Amino acid sequence: MGYHKEIYETVHKNLEVLRRKEELKVKKKAKVFYKRFPRAKEIEKELSRTAVSVAKAVFSGSNAKEEILNLKKKSDALQKEFENLKRKINISSDFLRVRRNCYLCEDRGYLDGKMCACIKKMLKQEAYNRLNKLSPISLCSFNSLKLEYYPEISSNSNENSPRKRMEKIFSFCKKYALEFSVNSKNLFFQGATGLGKTHLSLAIAKEVLDKGLGVIYGSVETIVERLEEEKFSNSFDKDNYNSNKHIKNCDLLILDDLGVEFSNSFSNFAVYSIVDSRIMLGKPTIINTNLSFEELERRYSERLVSRIMGHYINADFWGNDIRQQKRDRNIKTTQNMIDQSQGGLISRLHSNKMQGISENN
Ligand SMILES: Nc1ncnc2c1ncn2[C@@H]1O[C@H](COP(=O)(O)OP(=O)(O)OP(=O)(O)O)[C@@H](O)[C@H]1O
Ligand SMILES: [Mg+2]
Ligand SMILES: [Zn+2]
Predict the structure, then answer these.
(1) Cystine design at 162: which of 19, 92, 312, 318 (Cβ 3.0–4.6 Å)?
(2) pTM of the model as a whole
């Protein structure tokens, strides 16, 4: 499948830890149970002895029918006694059975020498986790997107206000995320800095990951660097890393900050090739950029811009830099806190002084 060997090692280790953890849980429960009911251990021993006797009787052939019947009766009685012991502490009948997350391979990852679906999923997830390491995805959700940061008044009376526009974009994207499938459309988020393009795309990513689908997020700059490293460095185990393949094949790719990367023939071709391959494969991509279409045309090939214009749904973000607004609010709050504490200090000093004066008098 072409993952790096570290990914296999991590997943195998995770599976082993999972198995051990469940086995340990049962061992602990068993210890408590047998300590409380020593008879349970004896019953188990007797049951296995009975099973051996039945087998012997079956193979001895002559006149074994009656003996087998008696052994069966004994076995049933022992099992009943065992069940009664368990019932005394109100536990389910299979409490001594080790629980497995995957009933097919019992968390071994392999079935008849072939990879089980569970390990395939874990390998894919581990590969994505490594590629997504740098994204602040845990902080971004639809709930933390507020409309109050976008102006209610439009600068041009013929247009919607930024708030109205962003409200539409948010609700479109919420629906997009909710209904996301591997055949969803491509999105192109355009707009000035700090308007929420990265935040919104990560909010979508979160929903998509929750559906169990694979998402790769990265700035164009880091993705291109990674591809360049893998292509030209000898120290990379090329067969095993294969980022190019994952980037082109993942269920959702988010290319952040298009236009910020250092531009050269390698980076321009890498971006074109990713965009083109994903269109051909019908796989959804979200691209974020500060550049206008004119700027894109100046910087990239016509072939890339034409693909983005033809195959992406464009959302133009409006408003004022939210990063800046949050900074201003923080400064204001800190200033207020300083003013309040200073006010308190001054009034305390003042009242102490008054007290001093009256005491002196
Ligand atoms: N609607 C919103 N409500 C609350 N916080 C927001 C909202 N949109 C963005 N933010 C926050 O504002 C900051 C800037 O947003 P973000 O990074 O998404 O902007 P951007 O459009 O990607 O900017 P850039 O073009 O510089 O990459 C982030 O901390 C983000 O969490
Ligand atoms: Mg951004
Ligand atoms: Zn399995």
Answers:
(1) 318
(2) 0.70
